[in-house]
Amino acid sequence: MPVKDYRKKISLSESGPGDAGKTGSWRVVRPVIDPDVCIPGRRNAPACYICWLYCPDGVISRSVPPRIDYQYCKGCGICAEECPTKAITLVEESSFIKE
Amino acid sequence: MQIIETGNTAAALGVKLARAQVIAAYPITPQTPLTEKLSEFIESGEMKAEYIPVESEHSALAICIAAASAGARSFTATSSNGLLYMHEQIQWAAGARLPLVMCVANRGVGAPWNIWNDHQDSISQRDTGWIQIYANDHQQIIDSVLKAFCLAEEVMIPVMVCYDGYILSHTHMPFDVPDSETADAFLPPYQPPYALDPADPANLNTVTMPECRPDVRGDIAPGYMEIRHLLQHDLIEAIPALMRVEERFRAVFGRGGNPYIEPYRCDDADYIAVSLGSLSYQLHGVVDALRAEGVRAGVLSVHLYRPFPDKIIVEALDGCSGVIVFEKALSYGYQGPLCSDIKSALYRHAQGRPFVTNYILGLGGREITTQDLYEALKASCSPDGGAGEETRWIGLKLHTRGMQT
To answer: Where is the composition biased (Basic residues) (chain A) (predicted)?
Structure first.
């Protein structure tokens, strides 16, 4: 049986953004990183990345400073909970709606 | 090579010839000697496979699911409450489309606790999406195991090979064991269409939305309902696929024929007894006795129970005026499941419909005497099927109805 046919018979999910659609729309609170408090941001060097490690959706980059892909971030808040310097704040999504 | 051995050994030899790569099983009577035999084969180096001992049947099947997901030919076996303990994983294996093979040495289920033969265990797993084959003797057990791997891997649906506990599992009978070169010619190494690969990671069978969705490549991936519809479609397609397997088997081994049913004196029969497993052969003698009295009776043994070969069964029953279904299982609160299935098939496909009566017998190993079968079948070989309730019990010793004795 060709793999192409077999893939249609099962649910197979590969790593990468967007396997369940643009899940950013699920978000109620938005994690916002303060680069002056975040360790890589403060030191201007790759370090820590606890948020990258814990993010269950893999939407935080290992960059300086780390960036969150809001197209897919569901706003679970695990990054804010785990951040050792409390650099991540959960902000109500409604406050980003422009009047 | 002709040998005289038990049904469990016949199954183990089939698994060895199939070169199963991973075996995980938990011992339960009457399946235990099968898995003991396999562990002996592996321990002695006769068979190259991983034998993974587990703490439960649920884990046994979970390991087989994982092994098959990684591309290994995998096997397990169980009976009775062990099979019921697997129930969640049984459904999973079918939905995950893994070509597992499992032997079920049929045994009654608790409560009350019982270790003897009936078909309630595997029949209760009828609706899980597995293919179910019932063997009538030792030769059919070893042959069915080999065919089961071949069929499972062609259609990517798991197969249960069911045989009567004790009556077949523990009795010694002569049967032919093919040599491994011939078996290899019939069943080449498993080529999985997909196998988990650390270099290209994937999650299998994760939460699947009611609707279709674009996957990471942007292709539209099936939703839950598409995946389930394909399972149903492919199960129906497994009926002709089994004939292809049978033809290949016959070309290689020189035996085989009809993989769906085994009719005995059915061609001109007015009354046909239908059953699963070794009981069918016991009924042969009963039919011979009735024929000697001038009653045109026959026996139809059903080998493939799921997918249900309804048209093939109705063709075999065509022209008879009565169908008498003998069952070692019951859909409690209604009737024997095979009886319901036969009636459903007749409703759809038959021209003139015969009457259908149902006997429940042999539950929990209650002895089935040939005299009882003879009397029951004789009573039903009349135009009205023998007056009485549609579902009748054979072999009851106490009158338990209404708790009045």
So the answer is: 1-10
